[in-house]
């Protein structure tokens, strides 16, 4: 938490130890605790990079051992029950992505593995074609599975649209309604805009609207990101943003 806001920084996909070292060095400098540590990537095309899997877990161990006095909280997505089992020992925040918002069997499996000693939250993204009430219903599956409501973060990541220049529309109205229904709400302007030139203006807007925090994709070499390269901001841009909003 910085000024009572929750920030999650990091690359779209974990790619290498050196990538994660650079990201975590910046996070330490900024005082950001939660890091995107995605070892499984749900990709539209099966030929696209699917994630490091097990190899990614070794990288996370290395990062934590190198930062004994400054541990990070990893935010990790599970797209299936078997992936959930793999990430639960490592994740501080269990992420259920947009494509799995209505994967009811996955949602039901979260409560039984949710352990407040290890896990701070479950982050549930809104599906890009789902209504706010479907989103709340999906959160209800988590609650009924045993995840306390106050441990759920709903993450707004934009809807498909014909009118926006990038085909996605970050929906603050959905996010406001989720907040009105008593959930923590974090905004993801990276997937919510798909273009880095729009990410920080909407990040600022989200903070001005007093949502609970932000998830931001950043990368040491944004154009070389193996996934979502267009929306990744540089580490320098990220640092400048934090200096701008907090100084
Ligand atoms: C992600 O945050 O890594 C991701 C895949 O986002 P979404 O589920 O919103 O597409
Ligand atoms: Mn991404």
List the helices and strands and how they pair.
Layout: E1 6-10, H1 17-30, E2 34-36, H2 54-66, E3 73-77, H3 81-87, E4 91-96, H4 104-113, E5 121-125, H5 132-145, E6 152-156, E7 159-160, E8 168-169, H6 172-180, E9 184-187, H7 196-208, E10 213-219, E11 233-234, H8 235-246
Parallel strand pairs: 1-2, 1-10, 2-3, 3-4, 4-5, 5-6, 6-9, 9-10, 10-11
Antiparallel strand pairs: 7-8
Helix pairs in contact: 1-2, 4-5
The structure holds phosphoenolpyruvate and manganese (II) ion.
The site of manganese (II) ion (MN) has 5 residues, from loops.
Describe the protein in words.
The structure is a single chain. This protein has 247 residues and is α/β, with parallel strands linked by helices. 37% of the residues lie in helices and 19% in strands. The strands form two sheets. An eight-stranded parallel beta barrel has the order 1-2-3-4-5-6-9-10, surrounded by five helices. The chain has a two-stranded antiparallel sheet with strand order 7-8. β7 and β8 form a beta hairpin. α1 (17-30) packs across α2 and α4 packs parallel to α5 (132-145). It is globular, with a radius of gyration of 17 Å. It starts with 5 loop residues before the first strand and ends with a helix. The structure holds phosphoenolpyruvate and manganese (II) ion. Manganese (II) ion (MN) binds next to loops.
């Amino acid at each position: 938490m910085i000024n009572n806001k929750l920030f999650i920084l990091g690359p779209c996909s974990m790619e290498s130890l050196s990538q994660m070292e650079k990201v975590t060095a910046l996070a330490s400098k900024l005082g950001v605790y939660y890091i995107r540590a995605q070892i499984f990537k749900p990709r539209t095309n099966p030929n696209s990079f699917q994630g490091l899997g097990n190899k990614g877990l070794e990288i996370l161990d290395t990062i934590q051992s190198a930062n004994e006095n400054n541990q990070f909280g990893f935010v990790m997505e599970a797209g299936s029950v078997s992936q959930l089992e793999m990430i639960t020992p490592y994740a501080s925040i269990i992420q259920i992505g947009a494509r799995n918002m209505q994967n009811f069997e996955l949602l039901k499996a979260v409560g039984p593995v949710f352990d407040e000693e290890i896990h701070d939250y479950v982050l549930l993204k809104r599906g890009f074609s789902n209504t706010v009430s479907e989103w709340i219903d999906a959160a209800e599956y988590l609650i009924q599975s045993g995840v306390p409501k106050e441990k759920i973060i709903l993450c707004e990541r934009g809807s498909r649209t014909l009118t926006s220049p990038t085909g996605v529309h970050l929906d603050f109205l959905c996010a406001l309604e989720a907040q009105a229904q008593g959930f923590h709400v974090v905004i993801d302007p990276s997937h919510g805009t798909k273009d880095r030139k729009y990410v920080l203006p909407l990040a600022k807007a989200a903070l001005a609207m007093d949502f609970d925090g932000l998830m931001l994709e950043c990368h040491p070499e944004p154009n070389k990101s193996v996934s979502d390269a267009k929306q990744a901001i540089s580490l320098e841009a990220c640092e400048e943003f934090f200096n701008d909003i907090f100084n």
